[in-house]
Each structure stands twice: as C-alpha cells, then as structure tokens.
Amino acid sequence: MAAVLLIDDDVELAGMLADYLRGDGFSVKLAHDGESGVAAALGGRFAIAVLDVMLPGLSGIEALRRIRAASQMPVLMLTARGDDMDRIVGLELGADDYVPKPCLPRELAARLRAILRRGSTAPAAPAGELTVGPLRLNPAQRLAEWRGRGLELTSTEFNLLEVLARNAGRTVGKDELSQQALGRPLARYDRSIDVHLSSIRQKLGPLDDGRSPIQTVFRQGYQMIPG
Description:
alpha/beta; five-stranded parallel beta sheet; four-stranded antiparallel beta sheet; 8 helices; 11 strands; 41% helix
C-alpha cells in the first residue's frame, strides 16, 4: 500500500480526495498548510506527495523548494487550471508532474500510480548498466553519473534520460517520451517534457565541443548525441 502525503488547504476537497484514494488502495496523511506539509514530507516515510500550489502562508512553490532541497521523493503538483506559470515553475523546481484543479479523483489516482510505477521500474528495455559517452546509468539502482559525478535526478528526469540514452542517435518524439517516461499521452500544449529536459541539460552541462548532449530536433522531438 503506497503512502501518500496530501497537502491542500481545502479541507473538504482534501478529505474527499483522501477518501477516494484510501478506497483505491492508498494510505493517505493530510496536511493543510505548507509548513506542516514540509515537516511531514521530510519527517515521514511517504512514497509520494500531492502538493497544492495555492497554500496559505508558505506557498506550494516554496514548500516544493524546501522538499527538493532535502529529498527526491516524487511530488505531484495541484495547479489552477490554465495557470501555465505555476506549472512551469513547479516543474523547474523538480515536481514530477501536475494535475490541474478541479481534478477527478480517478485521474489523480491514475497519475499517482503512473509516477510510482515509473519510479520503481525502468521503461521496457534490457536490464544492466547503460553508457552513452560521459553518461552512465544504472536503471536497477536508479543511479546516474556524468563524467564520474553522481547526478541528483527526480524520478521523471531519470526516466526521460534513460529513454533518450537507450535511443542515442535517434530522434524520439515528445509523445513517445511522454508515454514511456511519464506514463501518459502527451496533452495538447503540455510543456512538461520541455521543462524536465531543460533541467536535465543544466545538470549534465555541455559536451567537450560545447554542444548539449540532448539536442532538440525541430518539430520532431529530442535526440541524445551518441558517445
């Protein structure tokens, strides 16, 4: 039974979502403000956190920043429908995915399972270590190194990097990336892939010739430069 930390100041909505998730096989702990949510996230043993952006006092964005400073626990953000800025900022700070509010409990449960599934299992591909140029991945242990230096990656970032590494030299479309790494189809106007890959590029740095190891192929997708 996966333990979920649900941080939302809307007591009625949070209670309704918690009841549904419990009935769907999750265990759920509730927090109704950012301060107590961060304390619970860093002091408890949760498989994933659901974090509302609009919280009283300590905002959801700042709460995410504090969680990410000390933990790589998966985080799903709840954002206002149509508020692209909150989504982008949340993803840049290391959120694994987002769901716009109001959301259907069934959709929330499906997103949680997709994140947890990709965090515990690699995309369908042969097991064993994977090396592409300066990059080394150990999917079984969820470890990544760049030039011998350990990389701090979120679950989503690791999966995206693995999909690209396994297809090094081939352009991978954004919908394929979304299906394999996020566990869901790419939604229209969804910029999650772009934001996650921007974060990965910053963590990797350039190749010896100054190019990014992950290239954008105009209107097609992304390609990892082979070693």
